[in-house]
Write a structure and sequence with these properties.
Rossmann fold, six-stranded parallel sheet, alpha/beta, seven-stranded parallel sheet, 4 domains
């Protein structure tokens, strides 16, 4: 094996561009391994093959890009690197064609006073100062970035409160504001159900199911997962609830979240007990009775929450599937298993999907392991290796430092799929596949190849391997929901209609037994509503006008929705040096 390294000094590309480039290199003839990354210490730590960390890579600074190729011979490595350089050059040329592009956020704001929201999807170490600049200038912030220190999140949310702005995030994957689907949001119809959530994929699940049942969304406000913790204080969650309570276009409020810590829970209770609108709450499997009032319903799953919200909104029950059809599919898969195949292996891109599946399965399987912090779930000591029944959130920070989110990059789950397929105790593999604006343009096409590889590997070892998938999306999404489902089915996967239904199907596939189907009783809540007269915590624009700082794909998805977008061609300040960056922040 020949290893070749190339360093490009003083250039910057976002992680999605570099991940796509890495995928292209790996498809080059003779290439065994490849990495294309910015030269941060965090990125170097993600390279598990230490032989690839050459002296050149160790010398790269955060403002340098490195390309590592391990190939059969020197010629193959050289061809692959030259191809990578050509792709990088084309990327720079395409970026130069953007209609509105500035070198700094400050410049973009000064030249576009009509902008009202900044979308930040930079690496975490660069996100704070840019989000703070946006809030100081009076703009709302959608903060997709993860790996942002907790102290910085607290500072941003305090500032947002003082400035009467909203900061959604960090680690906020989804929002729908001012007619704009931000991050990984879906093309759902407008309607009268307002959503606030501490989970991006949780918001996607309930909004897409609501859409598929014929109802619609007024707004969806994301908070970021840490917002519900005592030390953050639930500032965005509380502000979102207050705003939806006063919004004239919202008739039903739906909240999806992990159970909030005590102080945040008390603040939520104070609000929902005075809201004159029906409220549906999903706390990831919790049915905490203290939330129940005359107009509050607590749902145990996201599926149930969506059903309840539609019932209250339309006074009609809408069905998405027939349970008998799902059982028939699951029993058929079960009958092809060997006796030794007994474990569930869930490889999730959405943390909320992983949490919900783990909670459902833990009622009948014990123990269930995972890198999720939920009751009755045993922690995985090494998230890179499954034990027994495992639910692995591959969007967790440990997997994403220096890499794009797995919703954007299906290939991040390929290696793990093959490892699970090679284990004779694996009874099935589960995959969640997320559609929407900003997501991978054709994920089922990529996953179909991985599914075929995994099934073929098991077949070579004399086993049949069930692969169960769930597609979160709607027909109007750029990827087209029905097309994605058909591609997956053609590859040999079984496709579930909801994440909760997938967990029930998984239980039947592994045991041959049946979990009781949920029964959703009609609600007695009065659908009439009255808007709150409390002071609004912030003002939202009727139409979003966005400055995009980070992933180009997020800006392009907004343009496809006819949302005005201004681009910032970001480069790390102070050459990416953390000490100098902190000094600059203090001086400013």
């Amino acid at each position: 094996m020949h290893i070749q390294t190339l360093i490009k000094n003083n250039v910057y590309f976002d992680s999605m561009v570099l991940m796509q480039l890495t995928s292209r290199i790996l498809k080059q003839p003779g290439v065994q391994k490849a990495h294309v990354m910015m030269g941060t210490e965090e990125n170097r730590r993600t390279i598990r093959d230490k032989e690839l960390i050459t002296d050149e890579v160790l010398k790269a600074t955060p403002n340098d890009l490195f390309i590592i190729v391990a190939a059969d011979d020197e010629n193959c490595a050289k061809i692959a690197i030259n191809s990578a350089l050509d792709n990088l050059e084309n990327t720079h040329e395409n970026t130069g064609d953007l209609k509105l592009s500035y070198k700094s956020l400050v410049g973009a704001i000064q030249n576009h006073p009509e902008a009202n929201l900044v979308s930040v999807s930079l690496p975490g170490k660069y996100a704070f100062s840019e989000a703070r600049n946006a809030l100081e200038a009076g703009l709302h912030v959608f903060l997709f970035s993860d790996n942002v220190p907790i102290e910085e999140e607290i500072t941003l949310k305090k500032l947002a409160y003082e400035k009467k702005q909203i900061v959604m995030g960090p680690d906020c994957g989804t929002a729908i504001l001012g007619g704009a689907a931000l991050g990984f949001a879906n093309a759902v119809r407008r309607g009268s159900i307002g959503v606030v959530g501490a989970s991006g994929t949780g918001i996607q699940e309930v909004t897409t199911l609501i859409h598929r049942m014929g109802a619609g969304i007024s707004h969806a406000i994301g908070t970021g997962g840490r917002d519900v913790k005592d030390f953050v204080g639930g500032g965005t969650l509380i502000a979102g609830l207050e705003w939806l309570a006063a919004d004239t276009s919202t008739k039903v409020i739906l909240m999806v979240s992990k159970p909030p810590d005590a102080s945040v829970r008390d603040r939520v209770l104070d609000i929902i007990q005075t809201v004159n609108k029906p409220v549906v709450i999903n706390l990831l499997g919790s049915s905490e009775t203290e939330y129940r009032t005359g107009k509050v319903y607590v749902a145990e799953t996201m599926e149930e929450a969506a059903f309840m919200a539609v019932m209250v909104d339309s006074h009609q029950q809408k069905d998405l599937y027939k349970e008998a059809d799902l059982l028939q599919l699951a029993i058929g898969e079960h009958n092809r298993l060997d006796k030794g195949q007994k474990y569930y292996r869930g490889l999730f891109s959405g943390g909320t999907f992983a949490n919900e599946a783990a909670l459902i399965l833990a009622k009948d399987f014990y123990p269930v392991h995972g890198n999720v912090s939920m009751p009755n779930i045993q922690p995985l000591e090494d998230p890179f290796n499954s034990i027994g029944h495992s639910c692995v959130d591959m969007g967790d920070d440990v997997f994403t430092v220096g890499k794009p989110h797995p919703i954007l990059a299906p290939e991040l789950r390929r290696e793990r799929m093959l490892a699970e397929a090679a284990n004779p105790e694996t009874g099935m593999i589960f995959l969640d596949i997320v559609l929407g604006f900003g997501c991978h343009p054709d994920p089922a096409f990529e996953f179909a190849e991985f599914i075929k590889e995994a099934k073929a590997l098991a077949t070579e070892q004399g086993r049949y391997l069930p692969i169960l998938a769930y597609v979160a999306g709607v027909e109007e999404d750029p990827q087209v929901y029905s097309r994605q489902v058909e591609i997956l089915k053609a590859s040999g996967a079984v496709v579930a209609p909801t994440n909760a239904a997938a967990a029930r199907m998984a239980y039947t596939i592994l045991t041959g037994n049946i979990l009781p189907a949920p029964i959703y009783s009609p609600l007695s809540m009065d659908g009439d509503f009255k808007n709150s007269d409390r002071e609004l915590p912030f003002e939202l624009p009727e139409k979003a006008n966005v400055i995009n700082l980070g992933l180009k794909a997020f800006g392009e998805s907004l343009e496809s929705q006819n949302i005005p977008v201004t681009y910032v061609d970001f480069s790390p300040p102070a050459g990416g040096n953390s000490e100098l960056m902190n000094l600059l922040n203090d001086l400013l």
